[in-house]
């Protein structure tokens, strides 16, 4: 997948709904946000972290707040720019791309809209490959990367920068600030360099998400063989042995931190293997 | 001398047929009529009234209930819609998605007037986000002058705190006068700003259609020198007074399938069953739970627009009495249908198109028309067609069922004869002599309702107290809508805890339903 266009948004939304895994909110409003942003600014380029300036700043974005609040109050579209400028100032690095912290629910779609608004590419990666309930449940956390500084921006433009001593505290402080913001904010957390993302992020997450959506739609449309693993669309092209889902470094980082995540990686690697086999 | 007005007329205008019934206070069907829906819809309604009133004493009619596809058709055909000014209160939040985003272009073209997003609105907690920008509202009102038929106003969190929405509507009425209808979003939708805004816009666009429906019905009744209490049925199968129907026509938009299912429950006395409503063109399959249709958990789209109405959870397929059967290069059944032309085009009625009704007659499931016209019909073809539709009905029953055990099924609608007597997973297929007018019966027996959808904090007063408040509010609304205070009951109460919210915030939805108070001639027409 080289870019995300208006035509991809439905599949991305369907996939995000699955990867929301029961949480993550209803992606209806975020979907419209992405469509509006793409209509105004054109398609968003999709890149691998390794294609970007290794020392450039990535803006990993997520929606903070409660899905029920989001149903009434949502973003005006300028929050991500405020967050990016705040991080650039603080870290002395220039933003080179946007990344979803989680693929799953609205947090999958918000970064795509933000990338369109900022004129930056989006990185085909995330930090858990599903929605998760707390900010420290990420592969970056396992790799020892601090979530701070977290920048929270609400739709009125109020900005809070959280500088915490550890990632659990960062989450707690960010939640408290979000409550005062009306339970809805754009959050930029784990401000990593492209090099760190290349090493520790889970690669291919957006492609994976879109592929899930594409298959759901194929099933709904009654396409033959839609359930079979061998059914494959052109977008899965980025899933090849040469472009593995997870870098060895990422596996190493997880391996010493916890047992259970490595099991999911195995599954993912097998999934990748089987899809790529069918292509050859 | 007057007779006691103890009769009710139920009328259901569907895509294919217009049905009417007269039901007495014991629930017995005293008269019935079924005829194709006419191109000018009220011709059919007048004819239906004429027909049923020839069988009973008009002065004994106390109440008339109408369910109609008028508003839905107006949206689907994009015709007869008013031009709508759209005001959203919520800036600087929500600017990333403008009003009408995601709507079909032709529908937008048919109804879009000026649109503005102004400052104001409230947080989920009911606290004001910022002051209401009254100057911007007055600017918007000026743009609307002479340019719109109606206005839809939606304020952020208005179901929780209506202050800004109410004030904006007041200002608009002051500037534009009473002729421009103003829909306040919380009257037509719950939590979910965009869905509620969509409902408000559709409602505003339908104000003219709603008024036309009500006025035409009242005229038709006046022609018979009748002045009964008049109601329209709404999506959930309960009633709206005509005053409310004029104000909130969008709430009547999905009443057809609900009326059929409520009629099915009434005719059979079953409260939990699969219902198949087989019409001329399509079949709706739904599930009765506690006498009401199970509601869909998914958002409902109307004419391509997402709303947050609770609608019956239905599976619709293109199988009906008029469904066309062809046998060239393999058999094909539907989705094409002769629809309301069944009486002219089906073979049993002397026509030349093979329909499922012909198959049904050939198989002995129905006795409509002239069986001898089918003498040249290939028996193998009939057998294969039956096998195919029986398989599809069985699959439908299986899909809609919520539990593994056998359940009863009620077959209603003009094409109910198509449904086989034996279906796997169904212990009995119920039929009724009036099943073909179940929708009109559902309208005739409809009750009044009230509902609440609010966020409560259980930290304040505790859960029991909050739930009691929700129940009381729902009952109060039902009584205001005409329900008998003594017989009103709570039919649904759901609690959804809100994740990540501070304290114990719970969204509570309660619904109360009760039979109408008997019409009082003194109060109503004294």
From TrEMBL, chain A:
<feature type="domain" description="S-Me-THD N-terminal">
    <location>
        <begin position="7"/>
        <end position="163"/>
    </location>
</feature>
<feature type="region of interest" description="Disordered">
    <location>
        <begin position="242"/>
        <end position="280"/>
    </location>
</feature>
<feature type="domain" description="S-Me-THD-like C-terminal">
    <location>
        <begin position="166"/>
        <end position="221"/>
    </location>
</feature>
<dbReference type="InterPro" id="IPR027479">
    <property type="entry name" value="S-Me-THD_N_sf"/>
</dbReference>
<dbReference type="InterPro" id="IPR010318">
    <property type="entry name" value="S-Me-THD_N"/>
</dbReference>
<dbReference type="Pfam" id="PF06032">
    <property type="entry name" value="S-Me-THD_N"/>
</dbReference>
<dbReference type="Pfam" id="PF20906">
    <property type="entry name" value="S-Me-THD_C"/>
</dbReference>
<feature type="compositionally biased region" description="Low complexity">
    <location>
        <begin position="249"/>
        <end position="259"/>
    </location>
</feature>
<protein>
    <recommendedName>
        <fullName>DUF917 domain-containing protein</fullName>
    </recommendedName>
</protein>
<dbReference type="InterPro" id="IPR048350">
    <property type="entry name" value="S-Me-THD-like_C"/>
</dbReference>
<feature type="compositionally biased region" description="Polar residues">
    <location>
        <begin position="261"/>
        <end position="280"/>
    </location>
</feature>
TrEMBL record, chain B:
<feature type="domain" description="Hydantoinase A/oxoprolinase">
    <location>
        <begin position="196"/>
        <end position="400"/>
    </location>
</feature>
<dbReference type="Pfam" id="PF01968">
    <property type="entry name" value="Hydantoinase_A"/>
</dbReference>
<dbReference type="InterPro" id="IPR045079">
    <property type="entry name" value="Oxoprolinase-like"/>
</dbReference>
<feature type="domain" description="Hydantoinase/oxoprolinase N-terminal">
    <location>
        <begin position="8"/>
        <end position="175"/>
    </location>
</feature>
<dbReference type="InterPro" id="IPR002821">
    <property type="entry name" value="Hydantoinase_A"/>
</dbReference>
<dbReference type="InterPro" id="IPR043129">
    <property type="entry name" value="ATPase_NBD"/>
</dbReference>
<protein>
    <submittedName>
        <fullName>Methylhydantoinase</fullName>
    </submittedName>
</protein>
<dbReference type="InterPro" id="IPR008040">
    <property type="entry name" value="Hydant_A_N"/>
</dbReference>
<dbReference type="GO" id="GO:0016787">
    <property type="term" value="F:hydrolase activity"/>
</dbReference>
<dbReference type="Pfam" id="PF05378">
    <property type="entry name" value="Hydant_A_N"/>
</dbReference>
